[in-house]
């Protein structure tokens, strides 16, 4: 008989399932999308319509909403006001917010990639007046993508469960002093 394979310490420390979003993964997504966007824009720029300055404004709106949600979730988690009772943050809602944060981080990385690919193309085309016109809009888009990634990662951080249970009474609220 063979001896069962021993699990390494690293395998024992990692629990299967959903883990925090890694910045490395988001960077890989952004780089791949940036290269793809650069190639597509390089060969199709002449057929694209002029870019408005605020083309990436939706990224800022999404980031603002996620920051607002993060403040609410953070306050509920910090006060241990998570549960099924009325007025508490329902665990399913917390899971949905976490899924939103993860999806938004990926969307932000994709947006950073698209806008960066466009920005690199426009920055290298000093001979086109249209490129000079579109450059500020692409900068707004890149910054918006970065802001969305940061907001999504912070929202994900706010969804973390409190570390270890304390000796607080049931319900998580400290008793009278």
From TrEMBL:
Keywords: Membrane, Transmembrane, Transmembrane helix. The chain crosses the membrane at residues 26-45, 51-73, 94-123, 135-155. The keyword Metal-binding does not apply. Pfam families: DUF3180. It comes from the Bacteria. This is DUF3180 domain-containing protein. It comes from Gordonia hankookensis.
